[in-house]
Specification:
The protein is mostly beta strands. It has a domain of 87 residues: Thrombin, subunit H. 6% of the residues lie in helices and 55% in strands. The chain is built from 1 helix and 28 strands. The strands form 7 sheets. The protein has a 4-stranded antiparallel β-sheet, with no helix packed on it. Strands 4-5-6-7 form a 4-stranded antiparallel β-sheet, with no helix packed on it. The radius of gyration is 21 Å and the shape is globular. The N and C termini lie far apart (47 Å). The N terminus is likely disordered.
Amino acid sequence: MTYYVSWSRLWTGLATLVMTTSLSTAQSPSLLVLNKDDNALAIVDLSTLKVVATIPTGVAPHEITASADGKFAFVSNYGTFGSNASPGHTISVIDLAARKEIREVDLGALRRPHGIEYADGEVYFTAELNKTIARYDPTTNKVDWIMGTGQGRTHMLFLSQDRKKIFTSNVDSGTVSVFEKSSDPSGWMATVIPAGRGPEGGSLSPDEKEFWAANSGDGSVSIIDVASKKVTQTIDVQTKHSNRLKFTPDGAMVLISDLGSGDVVILNAKARQVIKRINVGRNAEGILIPPDGGRAFVAASAGGKVVIIDLKTLQITGEIPTGKGPDGMVWVPR
């Protein structure tokens, strides 16, 4: 028996398959992981949990953010330490579709950029050595705003959803700064809030009523009431060196990475109590929780891997080898 194939139907079928595959690939979410010791960004396909690309960045990239459309990533290049220390002064702009760095922005006198967030088409970042926060406009390729904090080692920054408040953790000063939109000639009013020793990581609660600061120097968490701008409670979580702190999207739990012990400390946010400690390996650093809240990704820097924690069972379910010194991460929906 002889079968005849309609080439038009075959071509249509192949075209449909290619389009479907391309669409599926385009919509597959990605985890972007910075490998500090490789000077590189690793792209992890979250459907396969495999590194699908590695992109060179500037020197010692620490933190990363992505544009709202998922097309670009922005990386703060912190620079090196030691006898030949060279403070970083650039931001890498990464084209995620082309998978390459398209620009390394020279920040001039602004040194050691670290915390970085994308909002409303612009990129906000800290410059630790200058005790400042600043803003970069990718459209004009210029830094168009700078605000001094007056605080030692302004490390991370956090934006409120309406962009009317900016929080910073100031490690060496032991403080958290809150900048609020105002009628002041600068456009902002600053409040400095004493926290514990060495506040490093931190996070706004999902309802934005509280800011939790993880104090790296004394193993505590300072809970700040946003309305009164005062510490209302201090929790001893017994960390050796708290690095990052993240709320789950529903606000039910708080995760803290302990650089000193390699643990992820999990708290019941309402009860203000530690409910579990999970060891992920040496140097637990960056934490990322996707919007669905089902799992957490934690960078175990010394192990060259990202560990996956199921947030329902509070168990480790896997790990992803990413490169040398993974730390900062961001989730890209497509």
